[in-house]
Amino acid sequence: MDVIILQLLNGLDKGSAYALIALGLTLIFGTLGVVNFAHGALFMLGAFCAVTLQKILSLSFETVDPTKTDFLGNPAKIKTPYVESWFGPELGSSIIDWSVPLAILFAIPIMIGVGFVMERGLIKHFYKRPHADQILVTFGLAIVIQEVIKQFYGANPIPTPAPDMFKGSFDFGTLLGFDPNVVIYPYWRLVYFFFAALIIAAVFGFLQFTTFGMVVRAGMADRETVGLLGINIDKRFTIMFGIAAAVAGLAGVMYAPINSPNYHMGMDFLVLSFVVVVVGGMGSLPGAVLAGFLLGILESFSSMNEIKQILPGIDQIIIYLVAIIILLVRPRGLMGRKGVMED
């Protein structure tokens, strides 16, 4: 039972990342009809927003401390971060420590701006082009973004630690009646799960209960009719592209302490996220979330040694195997609209 609970937690953790990225992909496909292969790059850019803010907050200046000497006997040089000199040692060090959560505020305007530029500058020219053209141009854009990040940040992963408060692990076992240290799970992964749930709920609430969201949902169902009512649906769809970019960016920001950001992390998640979208149903937001958590849990359980002894390598192919079965049995996905991907 303890192993099952631990794998379930692992599955929810993986599913959170899959669901957040797939949610943004589905928003773009559902509103604009664009297959955006650059979405993984947006996830990566969010992670590097956290890296950038941490580097900015860690900028320091050197002062000479005559009371201390280095190994050569010269007066020691001490580096003091600027934020500590501005806000005091305690508050300044706390700001640096909380750089990842603070990067949420830093990343939102940046990612929305990146989304606007992508949509207005490039993707709008491919709305009526075949999906193959959309895939090629957005995949090329993803490679460009990836190489730019590699040029400025290097090829090696950059450790981006979580706040000290969330380092360590939570003992689930004691809550469920197990012995101590039987079922333990990192605090930050739990934070990521709850953060993902909050973002998903916020997106659904925005679409369901706001006038803007209702118009967007109406435009997704019948774009021409909404346009005939005098509503500039294209402008609203551009805003939704920016929101989708922000969702992917925030997913990357909070994932930075879990997996040290590197220039190819977007590609690592991109293919899996598209599989999630296909399994959930192209254009279905609930389907993207459901499939994200479902496939995350399946991948987690398939990585158990007991399973791999029976089916070696199953953890590497389980997601694709499920996708093949779904496409054969129900081409539109679990919750996709009838007719989508079925003609």
Task: Walk me through what this model shows.
- The chain has 15 helices and four strands.
- It has one domain (2-329): ABC transporter involved in vitamin B12 uptake, BtuC (Orthogonal Bundle).
- A hairpin with a 5-residue loop joins strand 1 (60-69) and strand 2 (75-81).
- The strands form two sheets. It has a two-stranded antiparallel ribbon.
- The protein is mostly helical.
- Helix 1 (2-32) runs antiparallel to helix 13.
Radius of gyration, in angstroms, nearest whole number: 23 Å
* Total number of beta strands: 4
- Give the CATH level 1 class: Mainly Alpha
Q: Distance N terminus to C terminus?
A: 45 Å
CATH topology: ABC transporter involved in vitamin B12 uptake, BtuC
Tally of separate domains: 1
What is the averaged pLDDT score?
85
The ordered string of helix (H) and strand (E) elements is HHEEHHHHEHEHHHHHHHH
State the share of residues found in helices, binned by percent: 55-70%
SS element count, helices = 15
**Spatial order of strands in the largest sheet:** 1-2
Strand content: 5-15%
